[in-house]
Amino acid sequence: MRSSQPTPLAWLVRCEQVIAIVLVVTILVTMSMQVVARYLFRMPLPWSEEVARLAMIWLTFISASFVLAQKGHIAVEIGGDGTNADAPQESGDRSRVKPYHLRTILLGWQLRSLVLLLTCLALVLGGLPFMVRVYPVASPGIGASKTFWYGAAGAGFGLMAVHCVADILTRISRFFPSARKPQA
Length: 184
Hints:
The protein is an all-alpha fold. The chain has helices at residues 8-39, 48-69, 97-107, 109-133, 146-174. α2 (48-69) runs parallel beside α5. It is elongated, with a radius of gyration of 23 Å.
């Protein structure tokens, strides 16, 4: 029987979803305030577009992370989906199963997750020097450091890397059932 306690990864996904909701509400409220201030009071807010833009940037990367965790991105299946639906069920002939599992390992989610993990890590590590370099530069409307602006990409790709590692470990553990902990 599975434990009723959520895993740390489930908590991370839930936090990402809550942050995304807060960012969407921030965009909605800020833009609504701008419309009211501009057309009702004839005094537009000088900072509202910048806040909405910053929230949209963070929303993009945080949302991409939890969508990746839920495997909601559009994908092209190259090596099958890993279900092995055409394998013989009742006969003792298991000769078709092993090559399919090998193909699933080589062309399946492990390879895709590994490539995505390496890409995310390269983007995070490649972007760090730039984020440090733009630290003293502030945005004109709200005065936030550009590091905070560009940090959204680093945070998003870092979270995506965490989800990739979790996916790789989960899928690898399926090939070694004896290594799994017994469920109480």
